[in-house]
Records
---
Amino acid sequence: MLAATARTSRPPIFWVLALLFGAFVLFLYGPIATIVMLAFQGPEGGLVFPMNGLSLHWFGELFRPQSIGDIWGSFDRSIGLGAIVMVLTVLFSLLAGLAFRHRFRGSSALFYIAVASLVMPSIVVSLGIGSMFEMLGFERHWYSSALGAHLTWTLPFGLLIMLAVFNRFNPAYEEAARDLGASSWQSVRHVVVPIIAPSLVGVALFGFTLSYDEIARTSQSVGALNTLPLELQAMQTNATTPVIYALGAMTTGLSFAVIGTALLAVLVVRRRRARFGSDSGKAV
Amino acid sequence: MTVSYEAPHPVLTRAEPQGPRAVRRSAAGRLTAIAPYLEAMPLAVVFFVFFALPIVLVVVVSFFGYETYRLLIPDFTFENYRDVFSEAVTYRTYLITLEFCAIVWAITVVLGFLIAYFLAFQVRSATWQIVLLLLCTIPFWTSIVIRMIAWIPLLGRNGLVNRLLVGTHVTGMPQEWLLYSEFAVILGYVHLYALTMIVPIFNSMMRIDHSLIEAANDAGASTWQVMRTIILPLSKPGIAIGSIFVIAMVMGDFVTVDVLGGGQVASVGKQIATQLSYLQFPPAAATAMVLLVAVIAMVALLVRIVDIRKEL
C-alpha cells in the first residue's frame, strides 16, 4: 500500500538521481565491456574500435606459448597465492574477531595497527618488506614476502568485517549453548560459525579477490617471478594486439565467477536458514 | 584525538568456577583467560612481521647510504632527506599529487553522497537497495589493472571518444589530452575509488532514523532542506571514512599514474617506484617517509571527526 502511494509520488529528484546512478553504472562497467568486446575480434583485429571481425582467435592466442610472456606461470602463482591468502584471511580474521569480543591488553593497539595497515600507502609497505628481506639476505618469493604483503592488505578488511559482525552478534545464542553444556570449542564450532557463515564467505571473497588483483604491495615484495596483475601491467606498455584484452576478459571472467559463487553461497545459506532455521509458527 | 576503543558488547560472562569443581576447572579457567591472546596471535604476528617491522625498517633505511652495486649500506646520514628537500621536482610532484587528491576527493565526495543518498532514501525497496549497491560493488572485486587498461581503447587517439567527437564534428581533430594525461589519471581514480566513498556514506545514511526525516517533512521542510540540515550532518562519519580511503589511495598511488599517465604524469608514489626500479632503496625510503608523514597528517585530521570503531 505504501509502495503504491509512493510510486505515484516520486519526486523529480528521484528521476534526476536515477539518471545519475544509471550514468555511474555505465561509467563503471562501460570500459570493461569495451575490452571484452574487443577481445572477441577476428585475427585482423586491432587495439581500438571498430571491431574487426568476430572470433575466439585472441583467446586461442593466449594458449600459444610464444605469443606472450610467462602468462600462465603468473596466473598459477596468482591463483595459488589468492587461495592461500583467502584461507589465512578467513582463519586469522575469525580468530581475531573472537578475541576482540573480550577485553585484552593491546586490543586497541592491534585495532589501530590494522587500520593503519589499510590506509598505509601500499608502495611504503612494499618497500619495507622488500628492504627487510634484502637486509636479512632472504630471497623474495610470492609465497613468502608477497604472501605477507597481501595479508597486510586483506587482514584489515577481514578484521573490520568480523568486528562489524560480532557487534551485531547476539551473545544469547552462545550462552544458550553453554547452558546446554557445550564446551567453548563446541559453541564456536556448532553455534557461532554457522550463524556467521555468510560473513565468512564475504571475508573469503575479499581475501581471494583482493589478493588475486593486488599489484601495489606485490610490486617490491614478489621477487623475480611476477603475479598476473604485474605481468599485465608490464604487458600493457608494449601491447600491440588484442591478446591483452583477451587476457583481461579472461581474468575479469574469473573474478566474476568467484564473486558469483560467493553471492550464490550466501544466498543458499540464507535460503536454507529461512527454510530450516526456525520452527516458530509451525505449531498446530 | 577523539578516537577511543571500546569493547562492542559488555564483556561476555565466562562461567566462573564454583565450589568443589573450582579446583578441577582452574586449568581451563587459565586457558579462558589467555584465550583472547591466543586467538589474536596470528593476526598480531602477521602485522608485526610484515607491517610494523617493515615500516620501522623504512625509517632506518631512509638514513642509509647506497652505491650502484650495494643496495643498502648501514649509515646514519641525512643525505637522502637533503636530496628530497633540495630538489625542485619534489615540490612539483607533491603539488601535483595534492592536486590529484583535492580534485578526486571533491568529485568522489559529491558523487558518493548523491549515489548513497539515492540508494538510501530514494530507492525504497530493500531488495533493490541491495541489488543496486551490489552492482556498484562488483567492480571493486575485479582487477584494478584491467579496469585501468580498459580506458585505453576508449580514450586513445583513435579511441571511441575521439571517434565520436570527430564524427559529430564537436572537434575537428582527435584530442590528445584524453589519454596519458592528468585528465586520464583523475578519471581512473574516480573510476577506481568512487565506491570507497559510496559504501561508508551509505552505511552512515542507513543509520539515520527515518522519523527525523518524517518530522522535518511534517514541519514543512523541502527535500533540499532535509538533505542539507539532517542527512548531510549525520553522514559526516561516512564521509570522513570514505575520505580517509580515497586520500590514502590517491596519495600513495603509482599504478594508475603509470598506466593512464603513460610516463607523462608524475606523482609521489610514482617517484618512489621509479627510484626503486633503479634499486635506490635509501632515497626511495626517504621519499616514502615524507609521503608517510603527509598521509598520516591528513588521516589524523579526518580521524578527529569519526570514531571508526563505532561505525562498524
Note: The first helix of chain B runs from residue 21 to 61.
---
Amino acid sequence: MKILFISEQREGKWNKVSFEALAAAQQIVSQAKGSVTAIVIGQGVAGLADELAGYQLEEVLLVENALLEKYTPDGYSIALKQAIEQSKPDLVILPHTYQVRDFAPKLAASLNKGMIGDCVGYRYENGKLVFVRQMFQGRTAADVTFQGDGPWIASFQAGAFRGDAAAKNASGKAPVKPVNVQLKPEQIRTKPLELFREAKQAVDLTQAPILVSIGRGIKAPENIPLAEKLAKALGAELSASRPICDEGWLPMERQIGSSGQTVSPKLYLALGISGAIQHVVGMKGSRCIVAINKDQNAPIFEIADYGVVGDLFEIVPALTEAVESKSG
Amino acid sequence: MAIDASGAWIREADISFETNEPDSFALEEALRLKEKHGGEVVAISMGPERAKQTIKEAMAKGAERGVHVVDDKFYSLDPLGSARSLTAAIQKENFDLILTGLQSEDHGFGQTGVLLAELLGRPHATIIMSINLHGDHLRVKRELEAGWFQWVELPLPAVLTIQSGINKPRYATLKGIMAAKKKEITSVPRESLGVQSAPTQKVERIYVPQKTKKTEFITGSPKEIAAKLVEKLQHEARVL
C-alpha cells in the first residue's frame, strides 16, 4: 500500500492535526507492505518540508508555487491533482480540518474518485481496509469501505490519533523532492483576503481548572443563572456548545468545540449537551467528565466518567447545594 | 433510533422526518438575498416522497418553486453519486448562486456543496458566516478554526456552503403556507437523469459505537445524586 499524506500549514506554521493524520498513515501502512510519502504545499515552505523529512517517510514532496502562497480551493486542488497523478498513491490521507473540508471533495471529484471524510479510525477486516466514521451526529458509527480503484482519499478527524505518536526517523532523513505543478493565475477564481479574529479573548477557557458547560438542554436564556450558580459554587468558568452561542445566549468566546476553544480541564460538567462530535473534539481531553442529560442515548455518555440520566433543572440546583455545603 | 435488518441504515418506520437543520440556515440566507436584491429562490431536495414536505416548507417560507429529485434509495448513494444526480437535475437552470447547508444530520459527509461546485465548474467557498453581493461578485466571510475568520471574494455564478448559526431562520406564516399550495414542484425521477455513477464508497454497516470510557451512572433522587456525585468527584476522581 502506497500512502500519500498531505500536510497542512498556514503562513509557515503547521496545523498540528497534520501530525495526527501522519500517525494514522504510518499505522495503516505498518499493517500492510508499503510506504508513506508526505506532501508539503505552499510557497516558501522548504523549511517545513525539511522538518517533516525527519519523520519516518519514504520521501517528502515539496509542492511550491507563487500562486499557492495563500490557500485557495482552486489552487490547492489543481496542484494536488497533479502531484497525486505523478506519485500514484493507493491511498491519500489528510487531516479533517476546515481547509480540507473546503477542497478535498473537489480534489477527489477532479480525479473522478470518492472521499471518505471525517474518519475516527480504521481497521483491517479480512485483509480489507475499513474506515470508521460517525453518522447521525455521533449516535451511530459506520464502517465504510472504498469501492473501485484508487487513489482513495480519506481524512481523519482531530483527536482520532495522537500527533506525538507520529514516528520519527532514527537513522537519518527522508529525501525532499520538489514537484513541479502547472498553475495559471486565471485558474484561481476565489480571492482570499485578510485573516482576522473577531472576539477579543477576554476569557481564556483553556486555563480554567473546572468548566460548567451548557447545551441545548438548558432550553432558554432565563435558565442560564442555574448553571452560573453551579459554576460559582465550583469556582468554575461557564462555557457552552455551539447552538447556545449561535443563539447569542452566551458570547462566542465561551464556545467549546471545533469552531471554538479546545480545553482539557480537570473537571468538565456537560449540562444538557448531547455530545455532537463538533463539541466533543473540543473537550474530550478533560481529565474527568460529568454529563447530565435526559436522553440516556446521548453520545456525551460515551465519553463521560460519571453520567446522570435525568432532568438538569432538578439535578443542577441540588448539585449546587451539595457543593456549597461541602465547602461551607 | 434502531438499525434496520440490512444493518446499514436505520429503521425508518420508527422515526419522524424533518428538514435538515443546517439547510434551513442556507434557505434563510437565500430568502434574505432575494428580498434585498430581487430574483427567485428555488428549493431542491432529493429523496423519497416525503422530501416533498421539505420543499413545501421552503415554499411556505418564501421560495418561489421547487424541484424534487425522486429516489427511494437515495441514502445508499455515495456523496459523489448524490452530487452528480443533483448536478444533472439543475444544470440547465443556470442558477447564479447555489447555497447548501454545511452538512447533513444523518450521513454528515459535508461534501455536497463542494462537489456541486466542481461538477458545475463554479467557484465556491465553505462554512460561510456572512454574504455580501457586489454586482457580479460576492464578498463572503469564511469561518476558520479556533476563532479565526477570513474574507474571500469570488465571482458569480458560485456555490456557497452555509455555517449553521449565520442567521435566525424564519417560521412559515399561515399566509405563506396557503400561498405555497399554489406553487409548483417539478418532480424528476432520479433514474430519468441518466446518471451512471459507480459508487466510490459503501457503508457496510452502522452500529452503536463502543464506549471508550466506562461511564458510571449515578441514580437516585436529585438530592441523592448530588450527594453521591460530590462524594465521587472529591474522593474517587479527586477533582474537587
Note: Chain B has a mean pLDDT of 92.
